[in-house]
Design a protein that fits this description.
InterPro entries: DUF1236. It is a single chain. The chain has 131 residues and is of the alpha+beta class. The protein folds into two domains: 57 residues; 66 residues, no CATH class. The protein has a four-stranded antiparallel β-sheet, covered by helices on one side. Strand 2 and strand 3 form a beta hairpin. Helix 1 crosses helix 2. The radius of gyration is 18 Å and the shape is globular.
Amino acid sequence: MNRKLIVAGALVLGFATAASAQEGTVNGAAGGAVTGAIVGGPVGAAVGGVAGAVVGTVLAPPPRRVVSYVEQQPIPESEVVVKQKVVVGKPLPDRVRIMRIPQDPKYAYAVVNHQRVIVDPSNRTVVRVVD
């Protein structure tokens, strides 16, 4: 009985979160729910949906004007090279200098390993690799 109640509560929470989400979040919630269902059945679907919604919100793609701005910026002479691969969803190391985007302060950019990347300046997480 308790298990059914937990499953029902998790599903309601998952659907409520996905319903109030933005476009990027809905994709994240749906993808998370499918992955969760494959791995853990109904409970996995609910948990995966909530997790996917959170990740989808964090990793919403930047607007085209932000991407264009970053594409037009010159590559600095003192470019940073790091050992790990730069991937979407992972934060940049602290030694990488990020520059705010004047038109949209929700985003910043950096040049790492010969690649321009757009990041969330609040947590340094890569949201898009431009090059």
